[in-house]
């Protein structure tokens, strides 16, 4: 605890003039206390407004976030002191308070540190010698009421010294707040008594407890905010690597080492001067970002959301360069700062762990520990185990043999030991040893590949290498993507973190922990002939992100250059380059193509060419998607990938394509006949005749059985309009099956009803029967974990569809009225819309791929537009990648033919682009022409 003051800015308000103005205002208001307070608050409101504007201008001019925070704290000090003077005058008319009316006004918590963001809480302690008197109550109330009238968020307490000590012993939050206590005004002797007793009765003998509590509290906090420091929408205050982590480090240092200022951290032996300067730079940058966020939003916004990233990057002065946008460059700096905060945390934890006596200066402490004898390791004299952690035996281990930089991490992996932070620091300080000679060293590259393919914890060890800086230096191409974020809603992590997580998914898959979630990948992985090729491809599949050219193509070039250096053969290099170049192919085909169309499988098979490549591509794809972020992988994507895998395997093995289409239709019909033994031959024959051949080729047997029973039940009950709901927990979707008389507006109405009900469509199977009935299955993303809840929700959506088809709901108005949080987030993104028409992807249909910025009701607007264009939709495939929607429609014209005329294609493209641009607004409630067709 200390009383701290800051240099007075040249444009600081004149306190004496303000005091005179306040006295005059109070006098003019007469004896009416309410009128006096109104007058005082008006003056102070102007003071705060002008002071904040001055701080904002200085921040823009000087770009010093810490200076801004201290200036705002000084401004609040002035307000509190002025209010105290007014309160004393109003309560006592200038008379001296009695001995029993001693009062100290103390800033605590963040305010006690002498730093405030524009939206920060103002935490005050009103310190008394014993219980409150009417005089002290009056002064405190006057101050607080005025602060509340100023719309400030005030945290306050009124306690005696005894109460402070008692509460601090019992409550860690109060103990921490008092650790930062700073006298603003009042009785200095009373504050000094609190300081002395706090040190003597609270701190003494409790350092270990405080440290344990603070580190545990930090763990809980970062888990709430998101356990990775590489989340693309980080919490600047409470997230991992944020300001609260720096606060925690300083709290620990103050409590254990009794330092008063960050400058004392060097003398205490916690940091060297370079690390102290790093602490200061991190603190300044994070405060600058936080203050800018509060100024821009006008509130205490701590999450650096996508819409804020653009504004803050611009205000701080970042510009696009080298393939990275201004936002991506700004966020890369942010994540590098967060990593530095993590390094500082590790340094402090190591010092606390080793502290047995008075700390020595940093260099002595470090060298002394490196020379201390630890537990030896069987086959090396260079590394030892100390305090259950792996560390170096001597300080020259890396200088003597730079390959030891990699060996350190190999032993950590083999022995399943954490690396001592001091050893990690020595790695960071030895990075200059990583030169072309080490990068081309055969032993070093062999060790690296061993780490990459480890069956222990490769993700953890590689992350430690990355945090030390070694990974980016040893593989410079990887170094380019360290801390690089992608400005989109799809990717949750920075590029380097995503790549490391993908290696972790592969290790989990190999360990059998994902066999239920990824059954096919789990089954085929042991049969992959070259596991090393797969691991390297995963490690570098996104390594070319942030370049002006396509990252898949550029990544393949990097693979051809990097893999020989790592010691891989020419055939291995070729396979890795192919996997990197095509690492998005399987996901794209599975999610946006008609997998029942033979042309889709034929085209995909022609690219893949071999079963071995197909296996590796499937495993790479699932690892890639699962590593994108929480909730991105789901059972529906898994089902699509499995279908594509099995269909392609048959073709590559020389099967499927040789079976005649008519034979496959007949076989499908016979399967249904055997699956419905209770049906008579006449009933089966009549039902079979209701479906066109495409139905029998596209729908799997379980769903064919469900459809038969569903249509039979609707016919028996004489319902021309019927719906059915079923959940699929494994695939993470809910199926809505709809039958109704076919008509031009049907699909648009169904998609609009789903949008209005808040249901997210992921796919659709569309059929028309020979007797003019529609049979559509709409797959919506699951919203609830429990089947009972999801079935109720599905029934509500189905009811919405039925009401819409009966004309009881005006769809366009319902879609327009539907507001979601997602729509607000999307405003931060700028995405060029695109419409592609392709007649080579299908034998019978024109494939229209529409991509652009997602928004509520987009699918409804697109299907409506296709209806107005007189196009029949045979199937629709809906995919969303964060803010980007990619919707694919297989269509024909009204004659059942492909759209081949150039002018017709241009019209389609133009009108769909108008929808994507939002120029049409919401489509009319009754679109005029067909939006579907019989699947013949």
Automatic annotation (TrEMBL):
Cross-referenced InterPro entries, in alphabetical order? ACT-like_dom_sf, ACT_dom, HD/PDEase_dom, HD_domain, NT_sf, PII_UdlTrfase/GS_AdlTrfase, Polymerase_NTP_transf_dom, UTase/UR
- Please list every transmembrane segment annotated in the UniProt record, as residue ranges: none
Q: Which GO terms describe its molecular function?
A: [protein-PII] uridylyltransferase activity
Question: What are the required cofactors?
Answer: Mg(2+)
EC? 2.7.7.59, 3.1.4.-
Q: Which SUPFAM superfamilies match?
A: ACT-like (SSF55021), Nucleotidyltransferase (SSF81301), Nucleotidyltransferase substrate binding subunit/domain (SSF81593), Poly A polymerase C-terminal region-like (SSF81891)
Residues covered by the HD domain: 495-617
According to UniProt, the reaction catalysed is:
[protein-PII]-L-tyrosine + UTP = [protein-PII]-uridylyl-L-tyrosine + diphosphate; [protein-PII]-uridylyl-L-tyrosine + H2O = [protein-PII]-L-tyrosine + UMP + H(+)
CDD domains from the UniProt entry:
ACT_ACR-UUR-like_2 (cd04899), ACT_UUR-like_1 (cd04900), HDc (cd00077), NT_GlnE_GlnD_like (cd05401)
- Which residues are in the ACT domain? 735-812, 847-928
Q: Which UniProt keyword terms apply here?
A: Hydrolase, Magnesium, Multifunctional enzyme, Nucleotidyltransferase, Repeat, Transferase
Activity regulation per the record? Uridylyltransferase (UTase) activity is inhibited by glutamine, while glutamine activates uridylyl-removing (UR) activity.
Please list where the region (Uridylyltransferase) is annotated.
1-376
Q: Which Pfam families did the record assign? A: ACT, GlnD_UR_UTase, HD, NTP_transf_2
The record's section on PANTHER family has: BIFUNCTIONAL URIDYLYLTRANSFERASE/URIDYLYL-REMOVING ENZYME (PTHR47320), BIFUNCTIONAL URIDYLYLTRANSFERASE_URIDYLYL-REMOVING ENZYME (PTHR47320:SF1)
Query: HAMAP family, per this entry?
Result: PII_uridylyl_transf
Recorded domain comment: Has four distinct domains: an N-terminal nucleotidyltransferase (NT) domain responsible for UTase activity, a central HD domain that encodes UR activity, and two C-terminal ACT domains that seem to have a role in glutamine sensing.
Give the family, as the similarity comment puts it. Answer: Belongs to the GlnD family.
Q: Tell me, what does this protein do in biology?
A: Modifies, by uridylylation and deuridylylation, the PII regulatory proteins (GlnB and homologs), in response to the nitrogen status of the cell that GlnD senses through the glutamine level. Under low glutamine levels, catalyzes the conversion of the PII proteins and UTP to PII-UMP and PPi, while under higher glutamine levels, GlnD hydrolyzes PII-UMP to PII and UMP (deuridylylation). Thus, controls uridylylation state and activity of the PII proteins, and plays an important role in the regulation of nitrogen metabolism.
Protein's name in the database: Bifunctional uridylyltransferase/uridylyl-removing enzyme
Lineage per the UniProt record? Bacteria, Pseudomonadati, Pseudomonadota, Alphaproteobacteria, Hyphomicrobiales
């Amino acid at each position: 605890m200390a009383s701290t003051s800051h240099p007075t800015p040249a444009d600081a308000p004149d306190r004496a003039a303000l005091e005179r103005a306040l006295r005059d205002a109070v006098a003019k208001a007469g004896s009416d206390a309410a009128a006096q307070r109104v007058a005082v608050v008006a003056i102070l409101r102007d003071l705060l407004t002008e002071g904040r504007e001055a701080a904002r201008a200085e921040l823009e001019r000087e770009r010093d976030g810490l200076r801004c925070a201290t200036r705002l704290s000084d401004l609040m000090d002035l307000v509190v002191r002025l209010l105290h003077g007014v309160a004393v005058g109003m309560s006592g008319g200038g008379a001296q308070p009695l001995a029993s009316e001693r009062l100290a006004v103390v800033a605590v918590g963040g305010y006690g540190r002498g730093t405030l963001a524009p939206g920060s809480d103002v935490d005050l302690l009103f310190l008394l010698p014993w219980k409150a008197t009417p005089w002290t109550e009056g002064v405190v109330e006057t101050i607080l009421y005025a602060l509340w009238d100023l719309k400030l968020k005030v945290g306050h307490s009124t306690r005696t010294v005894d109460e402070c000590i008692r509460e601090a012993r019992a409550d860690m939050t109060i103990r921490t707040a008092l650790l930062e206590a700073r006298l603003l005004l009042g009785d200095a002797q009373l504050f000094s008594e609190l300081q002395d007793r706090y040190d003597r009765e609270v701190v003494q003998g409790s350092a270990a407890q405080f440290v344990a509590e603070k580190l545990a509290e930090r763990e809980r906090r970062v888990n709430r905010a998101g356990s990775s420091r590489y989340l693309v929408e980080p919490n600047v205050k409470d997230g991992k690597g944020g300001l609260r982590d720096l606060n925690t480090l300083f709290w620990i240092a103050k409590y254990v080492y009794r330092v008063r200022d960050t400058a004392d951290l060097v003398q205490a032996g916690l940091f060297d001067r370079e690390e102290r300067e790093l602490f200061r730079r991190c603190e300044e940058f994070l405060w600058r970002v936080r203050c800018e966020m509060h100024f821009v939003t006008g509130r205490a916004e701590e999450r650096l959301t996508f819409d804020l990233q653009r504004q803050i990057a611009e205000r701080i002065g970042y510009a696009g360069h080298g393939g990275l946008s201004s936002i991506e460059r700004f966020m890369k700096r942010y994540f590098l700062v967060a990593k530095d905060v993590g390094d500082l945390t590790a340094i402090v934890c190591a010092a606390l762990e080793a502290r047995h006596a008075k700390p020595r200066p940093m260099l002595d402490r470090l060298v002394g520990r490196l020379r201390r004898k630890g537990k030896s390791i069987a086959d090396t004299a260079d590394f030892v185990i100390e305090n259950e952690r792996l560390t170096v035996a001597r300080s020259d281990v890396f200088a003597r043999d730079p390959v030891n930089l990699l060996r350190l991490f190999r032993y950590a992996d083999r022995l399943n030991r954490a690396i001592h932070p001091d050893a990690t620091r020595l790695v960071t300080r030895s990075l200059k040893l990583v030169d072309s000679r080490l990068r081309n060293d055969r032993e070093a590259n062999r060790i690296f590949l061993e780490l990459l393919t480890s069956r222990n914890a490769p993700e953890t060890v590689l992350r430690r290498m990355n945090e030390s800086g070694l990974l980016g230096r040893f593989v410079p191409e990887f170094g380019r993507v360290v801390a690089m974020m992608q400005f989109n809603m799809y990717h949750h992590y920075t590029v380097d973190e995503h790549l490391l997580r993908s290696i972790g998914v592969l290790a989990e898959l190999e360990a059998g922990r994902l066999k239920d979630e990824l059954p096919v990948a789990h089954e085929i992985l042991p049969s992959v002939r070259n596991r090393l090729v797969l691991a390297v491809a995963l490690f570098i599949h996104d390594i070319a992100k942030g370049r002006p050219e396509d990252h898949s193509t550029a990544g393949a070039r990097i693979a051809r250059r990097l893999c020989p250096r790592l010691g891989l053969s020419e055939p291995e290099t070729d396979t890795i380059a192919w996997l990197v170049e095509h690492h998005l192919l399987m996901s794209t085909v599975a999610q946006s193509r008609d997998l029942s169309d033979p042309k889709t499988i034929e085209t995909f098979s022609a690219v893949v060419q071999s079963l071995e490549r197909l296996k590796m591509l499937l495993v790479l794809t699932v690892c890639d998607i699962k590593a994108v972020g929480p909730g991105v992988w789901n059972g529906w994507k898994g089902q699509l990938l499995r279908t594509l895998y099995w269909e392609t395997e048959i073709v590559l093995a020389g099967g499927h394509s040789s079976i005649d289409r008519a034979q496959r239709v007949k076989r499908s019909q016979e399967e249904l006949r055997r699956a419905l033994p209770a049906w008579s031959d006449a009933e089966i024959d009549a039902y079979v005749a209701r479906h066109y051949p495409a139905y029998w080729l596209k729908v799997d047997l379980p769903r064919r059985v469900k459809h038969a029973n569903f249509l039979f039940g609707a016919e028996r009950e004489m319902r021309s309009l019927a719906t059915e709901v079923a959940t699929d927990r494994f695939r993470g979707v809910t199926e809505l099956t709809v039958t109704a008389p076919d008509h031009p507006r049907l699909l648009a109405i169904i998609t609009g009803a789903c949008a209005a009900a808040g249901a997210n469509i992921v796919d659709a199977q569309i059929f028309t029967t020979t007797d003019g009935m529609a049979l559509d299955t709409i797959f919506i993303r699951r919203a609830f974990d429990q089947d009972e809840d999801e079935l109720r929700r599905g029934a509500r959506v189905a009811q919405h569809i039925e009401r819409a088809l009966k004309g009881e709901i005006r769809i366009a108005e319902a879609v327009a009225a539907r507001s979601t949080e997602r729509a607000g987030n999307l405003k931060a993104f700028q995405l060029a819309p695109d419409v592609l028409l392709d007649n080579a992807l299908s034998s019978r249909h024109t494939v229209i791929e529409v991509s652009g910025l997602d928004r509520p009701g987009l699918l409804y607007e697109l299907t409506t537009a296709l209806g107005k264009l007189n196009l029949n939709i045979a199937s629709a495939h809906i995919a969303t990648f964060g803010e980007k929607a990619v919707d694919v429609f297989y269509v024909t014209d009204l004659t059942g033919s492909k759209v081949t005329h150039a002018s017709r294609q241009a019209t389609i493209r133009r009108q769909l682009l108008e929808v994507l641009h939002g120029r049409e607004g919401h489509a009319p409630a009754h679109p005029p022409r067909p939006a579907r067709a019989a699947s013949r």
